[in-house]
Amino acid sequence: MARDRVKKHNSQFLYYFIQLFGIKSLSIQKLTLLLLFFPSFLSIGLIAGIWIYSETVIVHQKIRELEEKTIRVQKEKLKDEVYRVLSYLDYMKTYPLDDSLKNIQEHVLDYLKDIRFGNEGYIFINDYEGNALLFDGQKVIANKNIKNLTDPSGLKIFEKELELASIDDGGYFQYLFERISDTIPQPKMSYVKGFDDWGWIVGTGDYLDDIENEVNALEKSLREQLFARLLIILLVFLVVLLIIVLLSNKVAKAIQGQFNKFVSSLKIDSDTAKDHDPLEDMFIEDLKFIGYDMRKADELAKQFGDIIEQSKNEIYIFGVDDLIFIHANRGALKNCGYSMKQLSRMTPFDLMPEISREKFNSIVKPLKEKSKEQISFETINLRKNKSLYPAEIYLSRSVFYGQEVYVAFIYDISLRKRSERELIYARDKAKESDRLKSAFLANMSHEIRTPMNGILGFANLLKEKGIENKVHNEYVDIIERSGMRMLDTINSLMDISKIEAGQMDVYITDVDIESVMTELYEFFSLEAEKKGLTLIKNYKNYGKKILIQTDREKLYSILANLIKNAIKFTAEGSINFGFIINSPDDLKLNYSKEKSKDVKTAELVFYVKDTGIGIPEKRLNLIFERFMQIENKDKGVYEGTGLGLAISKAFVEMLGGNIWLNSEEGSGSAFYFSLPHIEAPALKVNDSDDMTITLQSGTQKKLKILIAEDNEIHAKLLSIITKDLSREIVHAKNGIEAIDLCKENPDFDLLLLDIKLPEKNGYEVAKQIRLFNKNIIIIAQTAFALVGDRDKAIEAGCNDYISKPVNKEELLAMINELTGLI
Fold it and tell me: In sequence order, what are the residues at sequence separation of 6 or more whose Cβ sits closer than 8 angstroms to the Cβ of residue 470?
């Protein structure tokens, strides 16, 4: 009863409250309309504002990207033009040498002056001395030097070009320069690169206002697109607003009717109000939760859609039947380069040139048969700009707005493919390196063990009693040849090791070329004669000594390697070697078959030609690689490390030259190399150069000799060689002992000084001895035999230098010459 009274009082209170405040007279329909309309209006307005702002930001970002891209593309165009010219120059420099280089260059300039591209694009060329060859798109006839050419801002244009030309990849720079069609300087951007073979600076440029006009045109197009989008957004906003007004009005009318009934029921039943039905309360609560879940689901769907749109991976939706694209996310549009409007008239076959319709039907068969929910495959995709990229595609079937569709997720796998290629390349290089290393070690074992076998084997045979004199001399000759072969192997290994370590120095001196040629001829003529070959020394008599500044030992080594190879690989016929001064008036040699080199002016061109086995065409590009001889399975009969040509190539390049060859299998080979013709002053001729020095031990003064050598065998050898010259021979086993003996015996006439001594090395010993004895003759000798050792020995105070193994005749001649000063 008490509960009923409470309900009755509550109903009466609510009724009187409504009557008191006149709620009935305040149009509930209008109030509801306002409550529904304004939140909706604000929400839609906020969404539209955010949409407009995001579109504006995107457009401004695209404009910035366009500016950067346009500059970048323009730079690439300039670089491409220059590289196209450089490719043409590389091609032209392979013209036969019987045509004048100057004529070839004139032909090149005549061709390049007519090249035009873009608005006012042209090629300009200057040499490294600042002489303009092509200027303002015209070939320069009269001398025109631009060393002091400066733009209005004070930039020295040629100095900047020269700086960039010294860089391997060239470079860009900006400056003010007049157009061909105008006299007012305009900002210009140019790319230049050096062509060292001819000493040219090649460049081209474009005016920045042309680039700016292009950017402005693109910017205008983007702004027009933005304006069109804003109109669409405004129309959508108005339509949505109209729909909200209509729906709100309808809902407000319904609420007004229900409210009127509610007020009437309060008035009628205020005295007999009843409890609410619990089921009704539960129903209302369920409706609240349903509304909440629907709002939550709508928010999640929107967020998921945003994630898909913003994904950088490509996502395409296209119809199952016609295969025409229905939708593509931003990542897809950006990567393929097409707009959605263009894609709506295209199919996947326009983007996947490797996939035919038949192949596609075969690929999607599991999806049609529903045996798989998703399939994947790799192919090559084509962008709008015709560029290709490898892609991995995941394809599934779904429903989109009631239509059966395929959904394709596409991943650009360029980086992965490149990594795979790099791994494969690294693996192959490692295998090749391991194979060459194994082959090299096997070859070195053969090259060392073979002569060692000859030395030790025939040395043992010499111990036998009753050997005839002729046989004895034959054994000694074999031991000597084996020793020389081992020495050649060791020298080659030392040279290639120093080259690899970057420690091979160049010693430039004044060199008489003809004396080098004569020395080589005398050295190899006997070896050629033994094989029945004719060795020909062939060069023009220029009427004077040919003196140049270069490294004599390296020049001798290059020619010796080439002549030695020619003799080795020639069974019959001749070897012809010589040189020519390459100048416009003197090109007598026939280089018409040359494919890889066009020598410069002011060069000496050396050559070694043979009538030997020749080189297969497939090996021509590998012949200068290290250890390549060991790769030829068919010529195991030839000795050697396979390092000679690699060393020769390295030496030629150190001396500023180039090396190349012309060969045909079975028809012989011709090796050429060029060196800069840097003239040296006339050499002083020593009157004793042509004298034959003979020892007259009976009348010559006997010498007191100190041999500083820690190796007992070599010390004994030196004692035997010099015994006929000496009155007394003393031995020192280390550097300190040698110095002390010289202090105690100031009457020593000759010191044979090993460089690699214990305690103190030979250089230090020579320096200290010279502090108290200026008269003793010091001859340094070492097993190092490296370029520059003689200079180090002379600088330390030695009179001369000889390398191990010591040649008896050479050492005796040196002693005879030097002790004549006593």
Answer: none
pTM exceeding 0.70: no
Among residues 771, 770, 774, 765, the alpha carbon closest in space to that of 821 is found at 774
Please provide residue 253's backbone torsions phi and psi, each rounded to the nearest 5 degrees.
Answer: -60, -45
| 822 pLDDT above the threshold of 70 | no
* pLDDT tops 60 at residue 636: no
User: Which amino acid makes up residue 695?
Assistant: L
Computed from CA positions of residues 646, 647, 652, 656, in that sequence, does the dihedral angle turn out positive or negative?
Answer: positive
* Cβ atoms within 10 Å of 814's Cβ, excluding its own: 19
Strands 374-382 and 388-400: antiparallel
Residue 310 or 557, more confident: 557
Q: Which residue has the higher pLDDT, 776 or 504?
A: 776
Mean pLDDT calculated for residue range 774-796: 80
Please tell me the distance from the alpha carbon of residue 160 to that of residue 387, in angstroms, as a whole number: 35
Q: Which amino acid is at 348?
A: P
Q: Which of 446, 443, 441, 475 is nearest to 459 (CA)?
A: 475
- Residue 370 falls in which region: left (phi positive, over 0), alpha (psi -120 to 50) or beta: left
For residue 180, give both structure tokens. Answer: 């061909």
DSSP 652-675: HHHTT-EEEEEE-TTS-EEEEEEE
Q: What is the pLDDT of residue 66?
A: 75
* pLDDT of amino acid 207: 82
For residue 403, is pLDDT > 90? Answer: no
| Least confident span in 317-326, 342-351, 449-458 | 449-458
Residues 6+ apart with CB under 8 A from 303: none
- 268/266 Cα distance (integer angstroms): 6
> Measured between alpha carbons, how far is 443 from 642 in angstroms, rounded to an integer?
9
- Please give the sequence-ordered ranges of beta strands (E in DSSP) within 179-259, or none if there are none: 185-195, 200-207
For 219-266, how does the pLDDT look when each residue is reduced to its tens digit (9 = 90+)?
Answer: 777 777 777 777 787 777 777 777 877 776 777 677 666 666 665 655
Strand order of the β-sheet with 800-803 is 726-732, 703-708, 750-754, 777-782, 800-803
For residue 52, the SS3 value is: helix
Of 512, 570, 510, 511, which is closest to residue 536 (Cα–Cα)?
570
As given in the structure block, the two tokens for residue 278 are 């619990």
Amino acid at 251: V
User: Comparing C-alpha atoms, which of 486, 487, 463, 490 is closest to residue 475?
Assistant: 463
Structure-token pair, residue 817: 């010459």
Q: Tokens 């000889």 correspond to what residue?
A: 802
Q: Alpha helix locations (H) across 273-329?
A: 278-310
Cβ(150)–Cβ(157) under 8 Å?
A: yes
pLDDT surpassing 50 at residue 474: yes
Question: What integer pLDDT is reported at residue 635 of this predicted model?
Answer: 44
pLDDT of residue 125: 93
The kind and range of the H/E element at 470 are: helix 469-501
Q: At what angle do helices 101-112 and 28-92 cross, to 10 degrees?
A: 150
Q: What is the pLDDT of residues 25-63, one digit of tens each?
A: 445 556 666 666 667 667 777 777 787 777 777 777 777
* d(C-alpha 285, C-alpha 264), whole Å: 25
Residue with tokens 């690439």, as numbered in its chain: 76
Q: Residue 680: which of 509, 548, 513, 546 has the closest Cα?
A: 548
Q: Which amino acid is at 136?
A: D
711: three-class secondary structure by DSSP: coil
Intra-chain end-to-end CA distance of the chain, in Å: 152
Two structure tokens written together for 540: 């023009």
Per the CB < 8 A criterion, the answer to whether 511 and 552 are in contact is yes
- Smallest Cα–Cα separation from 329: which of 406, 409, 387, 383? 409
819 pLDDT higher than 70:
yes
Tell me what the mean pLDDT of segment 535-541 comes to. Answer: 81
Token pair recorded at residue 377: 């495959």
Question: What is the overall mean pLDDT for the chain?
Answer: 77
- Asked whether 257 and 29 are in contact (CB, 8 A), the reply is no
